[in-house]
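so i finally got all the pieces together for this one. its two components total, 819 residues if u count the protein bits. some of the lines might not be protein, just check the labels. i wanna see the whole assembly predicted at once instead of chain by chain like last time, that was a mess tbh
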Amino acid sequence: MWKKVLAMMVGVGLLTAAVWAATPQYGGSLVIAIGVEPESLDPIGMSSAPAATVSEHISQPLIYLDVDGTLQPSLAESWEANEDVTVWTLYLRQDVAFHDGAPFNAEAVKMNLDRFLDPASAAPFRFLLGRVTEVRVVGEYAVEIHTDDTFAPILSHLTHSFIAMVSPEQLRGLEPGETITNPIGTGPFKLERWDRGEQITLVANEDYWGGRPYLDKVVFKFVPEDAARVIMLETGEADAIMRVPPLDVPRLQANPVVDVVYATSVRVIYIGFNNLRAPFTDPLVRRALNYAVDKQEIIDVILDGVGQPSTAPVVPAVFGYYPAGPYEYDPDKARELLEQAGYPDGLKVTLYHPTGRYLMDATIAETVQSYLMDVGVEAELITMEWGAYLAYLQAPPEAADYDMYMLGWGTVTLDADYGIYALLHSSQWPPDGWAVGFYENPAVDAALDLARVTPDVAVRELLYHTAIQGIWRDAPWLFLHDEGQINAVREGVHGLIHHPLENISAWEAWVDR
Amino acid sequence: MAWYIVRRVLLVLPTLLGVSIAVFAMVRLIPGDPALAMAGPHATPEYVRQVRLDLGLDEPLHIQYGRFMAGLIRGDLGRSSRTRRPVAAELWDRFPNTVELTLASMFVATLFGIPAGIISATKRYSIFDSLTMLIALLGVSMPVFWLGLMLMLLFSVTLGWLPSVGRGTLLHLVLPAVTLGASSMAFVARITRSSMLEVLRQDYVTTARAKGLREGWVIYRHALKNALIPVVTVMGLQLGILLGGAVLTETVFAWPGVGRLMVDSIGARDYAVVQGAVLLLAVAFVLVNLLVDLTYGFLDPRIKYT
């Protein structure tokens, strides 16, 4: 129980490791062990959270999305839109230079955004700026971003770590198709070296526009084995580690020099129904299964209390979130609904799930299977390796051969558009998108469409509330839980930011040893 | 002898051609779409289509293979779809680390395996013999994964003698080398023992003893050299196996080698890197075997190369 209380205390997503107040000190270095090596530090080549984690220290986006989901001025000091919200003007800081001394200005922004948008760059996240038609320099420190129509989420998209600024000098020196391996950005740290397969070393940027960071050095080590990261923290070979396996939490908590940090994530885990296939064409059946599973128990027992039952298709930190749920555990009600739907003797379905992709995914699928069995639904589990699974879920409606599928989704822009539109708008059915459950509700579609082109923030929020309520009633998914993150930090390390985007940031961190 | 070497080297070529076809076919038989695996669930369909085009995955298989071979002849292994760097650069960054780990494991295996085998054979059925063979049995059957973590717990956490993971000092090499070398060590010990027992039964050993030579002289001067031939064969094979089998050890100990690169690349369906890595390891394996074949002549003058 005390674990839950602690989790609630940090429930909003912010937790700095500073446990007691003390004066920050300059100097020292910090070793952070992460599970996966970044695929690239070239903003246009990045596609994962570990890449973002490291990259953010070096190359910055124009706007910063802080831990509670607010847009904070960063390289762009302020911004405004024209009347029909198709042109955004960003006003830039005037005191910023890249690590190579090149000035940061409107020209640099245009070069970076144009490179990101160039189809030849093949940026995996190009769609973030998919509606942008032109980037125009309108002053030394002002740029205009033109979109083909009103596209309200654009500012959130600009916060993405993959739309980061690198030095125009560096960009000019690139051969066509060449990838940047030593990004030169504006951030608080500079890349010192990248030992492939091993670690990335960053050093403090003495001239950082936001003031020199406290630390002299930050080292990110890539340690794929969960247990090995825990051991590194215990021996002091690492000062902070990400993704602590729930099983090891009690051991770390018993260690007096280690703090276990619970933080929220932006990822929801769900089991989608194939809404085009009987029995899941019937909302009664879909709702019944939502009542049949005890999500809190899954969280408590399998996830060591980390996470919370989903109350919407997006997590509470996301703009547009509305607390529509949760579906309380009620097996009697589930049986009753199944009977009403015409399945008094139960039914048989298939449940596809990945393994090793999400925290304890396979174990959770097995547990769901036993809950469903309890109300007379016999689910056959089919486990697939991630790469094969993704391909399998891209079948068009007529070829889709699954009843239920487990997936997770992180709303990394913290704007509901990114989380809901892609998964539940009927225009996004495979093979054109990731609405793998083939859900369709014209009212929900209309609300989502409107929210994309409505500049008024309050109205947008209402539109998402409407959409979420409709989705919750229709129950196109078996809503499971909002994932949490477990990190751990050694004593004497202060000011680390554990971001819900599954990043760990060290620019405000310091050590007292 | 020279002619033998030339012939053996020429034989390597069809072997590698076979390997290249097998590797090429295998990575494509794994279910899953590399474009999709690379783009991830957040990517738009246009992007996935473009990746497919960029990787040449829309072409028929024989054309893809042709491209792959043409590149290979020019020494171009292609580009990693995950990191966008040349495959050769990815491999070059990691291969020396894998070689380092492999040689260290072989060293550990030899250092402990051969003496243990000799003593077991000469003190047959003694407590030492039973104990060594029991440890050898454990060494062969213990999962690398588990052994690695146990060693880390003991030597890094509890005793604090050795660093747990990563690469750097010589101390960093100890735990992964022991972990990877454990099964080879056991293997070498067992082979040395049985080979030694066999040689000790031979007439010339009896003769040597009858001449009144000291037992130590008989064993090390007369018996051991001949007993080593099968041991060297096994060690050569083991070296090859270690090179390719470092995958788990490299993962547990966060060792930046080719094996771990291969695992990451298979997950991302990074065909070019998987192909390159397997080819590299295959070449290394074949070369090691060639070397082993050539060593026989030095160990046993009765072996002639024709």
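Residues 4-20 of chain A have pLDDT under 50 and may be disordered.
Chain A is about 30% helix and 25% strand.
anyway lmk what u think
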